[in-house]
């Protein structure tokens, strides 16, 4: 599996280098922006992020999210904190399309039925997307990331009004979508 990741990373780097070499650079008007992902808000998860354009072709992002919800009657729980740094390359002259790589890590406690799962996750993937200009100061960033996430967790259940540990030290690796964003970007420094 590690070999497959290295092959995918090498192919992506080769493609990015080839595409970036054909486009003429254009001066970016955006240097620093604050961001929030509307999909996270739809899942009741407040989030904020920032993007710093190091150059016309390269941007660094850092997104963070935190949520803590408990429904007492059904004993449902939803707790999440996560950070997600990303490196983006803007290979075309319009500087709207981007390709990148992201890393994510955090902690999750999710209980919707009889059994809850609590633990930490970490992973990464390749991203791609497009930024639409809405106004002079606002952009809408649509993007998707594909990769892997490893989750180490313990199971628990409720008995006699107490949480009882179930199976411990479980782990799971999931391949697929690691990032989906419909993000509002507010350009602060131009």
Q: How large a portion of the residues is in β-strands, by DSSP E?
A: over 45%
Helix content estimate:
10-25%
Q: What class would the helix/strand composition place it in?
A: mainly beta
- Placed side by side, the strands forming the largest sheet appear as 1-2-3-4-5-6-7-9
Major sheet: size, sense and barrel closure?
8 strands, antiparallel, barrel
Radius of gyration: 19 Å
Identify low-pLDDT runs.
18-28
Shape annotation: elongated
The averaged pLDDT comes out at 82
Describe the structure.
This protein has 190 residues and is mainly beta. Helix content is 14%, strand content 64%. Strand 4 (76-89) and strand 5 (97-111) form a beta hairpin. The longest helix is centred in the N-terminal third of the chain and has 21 residues, at 2-22. The chain is elongated and about 60 Å long. Residues 18-28 have low confidence and may be disordered.
Q: Helices and strands in order, then pairings?
A:
Layout: H1 2-22, E1 32-37, H2 38-42, E2 47-53, E3 58-71, E4 76-89, E5 97-111, E6 115-133, E7 138-159, E8 162-165, E9 170-189
Antiparallel strand pairs: 1-2, 1-9, 2-3, 3-4, 4-5, 5-6, 6-7, 7-8, 7-9
Short description:
The protein has 190 residues and is mainly β. It has helices spanning 2-22, 38-42, and strands at 32-37, 47-53, 58-71, 76-89, 97-111, 115-133, 138-159, 162-165, 170-189. It is built from 2 helices and 9 strands; from the N terminus they run H-E-H-E-E-E-E-E-E-E-E.
Give the tags:
mainly beta, eight-stranded antiparallel β-barrel, 2 helices, 64% strand, elongated
